[in-house]
Amino acid sequence: MALAKEVKAEIIAKYGKNAQDTGSTEVQIAILTAEIDELNEHFTTHIHDFHSKRGLMKKIGQRRSLLAYLKKEDLKRYEALIESLGLRR
After folding, report:
1. How confident is residue 2, by pLDDT bands cut at 50, 70 and 90?
2. Can you say how many angstroms the Cα of residue 81 is from the centroid of all Cα atoms in its chain?
3. Which residues constitute the domain of residue 11?
4. How many domains does the chain contain in total?
């Protein structure tokens, strides 16, 4: 499930430095989080969609590695990001 362009643009505007900043770690993590949430909603109705479940696991692993990188590089940015995204309850 791909995110709509408007949703992705809102995420980039909120977490990026400018409108063209799609490569920063915060933006990548925020986009992956939105995609993961969308896939989780998909699985509430399509329980046996195992092919998409593999994609979900890949996205979760990629987000985990990006979060580990951000935590290692800048702890304050990491803590602010997980607070704003609602991760690590």
Report:
1. confident
2. 11
3. 5-85
4. 1
Tell me the per-residue pLDDT of 21-46, one tens digit each, with 9 for 90 and over.
Answer: 889 999 999 999 999 999 999 999 99
The pLDDT value recorded for residue 88 is: 82
Instruction: Return the CATH number at 59.
Output: 1.10.287.10
Q: Other C-beta atoms within 10 Å of 13: how many?
A: 12
Question: Confidence band (pLDDT; 50, 70, 90) for 63?
Answer: very high
Please give the Cα distance from 51 to 64 (Å, whole number). 20
* Res 1 pLDDT > 70: no
Listing DSSP states for the chain in one string gives -PPPHHHHHHHHHHHSSSTT--SSHHHHHHHHHHHHHHHHHHHHH-TT-HHHHHHHHHHHHHHHHHHHHHHHH-HHHHHHHHHHHT---
